[in-house]
Amino acid sequence: MRGYFLNLERKSRSVHHLRVKRIDIIKRQGGFFHTDFNGKVKAFKHGEGYGVFVFFEDSPIDSDFGELVWTPSAEELRRMADLMDKTDHLTFEMLGHGWEGKRPFHMLEEFV
């Protein structure tokens, strides 16, 4: 089932499907994001590792709200969760250790 939003504010019965253009894993290293499609992009925050990035296409609902809005489908959320697990392991391999923060991650080998 695709994500959708029913605009009740305008008493509209139209359903808008928000569009995810792609979901990618991107490496951040040496102060830059390294992408296949845009080369090196300067990173605002410092840090090394991999992250999950969601790229969107324009959607009619954005103009309704006057800002970017996303109602993810279950499949999009599953894909993001799977890729986030993968980036945790890739980042651990890059750094050689786990971390704390919003999404802490450690491997058993750190404690053995």
Biggest sheet descriptor: 4 strands, antiparallel
Element-level helix/strand string:
EEEEEEHH
Beta content comes to 25-35%
Number of helices: 2
The pLDDT mean sits at: 82
Give the distance, in angstroms, between the N- and C-terminal Cα atoms: 44 Å
Tertiary shape: globular
Radius of gyration, whole Å: 18 Å
Widest beta sheet: strand line-up: 5-4-3-6
**Could you list the spans in which at least 5 consecutive residues all have pLDDT below 50?**
1-16
Architecture overview:
The model is unreliable at 1-16 (pLDDT under 50). The chain contains two helices and six strands, in the order E-E-E-E-E-E-H-H. The strands form two sheets. A four-stranded antiparallel beta sheet has the order 5-4-3-6, covered by helices on one side. Strands 1-2 form a two-stranded antiparallel ribbon. The protein has 112 residues and is of the alpha+beta class. The radius of gyration is 18 Å and the shape is globular. It starts with a strand and ends in a 17-residue tail after the last helix. The chain has one domain.
